[in-house]
Amino acid sequence: MRRFIRDNGLSLAFIAIFLVTLVGQSFAGHAAEVEELAQHGRPPVGYLDFVTSSAFLVDVAENWQSEFLQFFMFIFATIWLVQRGSPESKKPGDEGVGTDEEQLVGEHARPDSPAWSRARGIRLWLYANSLLLVMGTIFLLSWSAQSLGGHVVANEEAAEHGEPALTWLQYVASPDFWNRTLQNWQSEFLAVAAMVTFAVFLRQRGSSESKPVGTPHHTTSVEAE
User: Fold this and answer.
1) What number of CA atoms fall less than 13 Å from residue 96's CA on the CB side?
2) What is the DSSP string of 157-169?
3) What are the backbone angles phi and psi of residue 166, rounded to the nearest 5°?
4) What mean pLDDT do residues 155-159 have?
5) What is the DSSP string of 14-41?
């Protein structure tokens, strides 16, 4: 168990932080909802009713879809684009998907390579693109959950004001939906740009996301290995 925790410490730590913050969000969101209802002279909603509501689903899915879109776009972009000197990039000249020999697939697979890396056809294609496919799928599912939950919330608010209900297509084409969505997207892409660029000139000793402290600015981390 101790070895398992050591070998998986990074993922376990962030999963734990994720669960703590998600629970914290649920309590804070419930308290905010109760306060808002009280201001309108309405009875409070129970905690379980709140965490299973469309409003809570929207708040959670809205953040998830932007995060996984960020990963999807970054993974795809780093196939073809480089940033000289950044540890987040391949070195200039290595753009593209690489050869079978470089990727250790097919006849070039090692004895301990994953089984599907030795396959051919659709199985090899699926495994060779599995990270991008999974990130894209989670993004689409989160985006769909956000849009469906947001549609319910929007129609509940419309009913309170005596306004007609919107169809799902009308909601996802509305300024309110895209205002909320693009607020998240722009912050995610700014964070990626900042990480890629700052890591060219700044260092963090001991971090895998940083080049060694004395590495020249113009040297991409893979060139120093």
Assistant:
1) 6
2) HHHHTTPPPPPHH
3) -100, 150
4) 91
5) HHHHHHHHHHHHHHHHHHHHHHHHHHTT
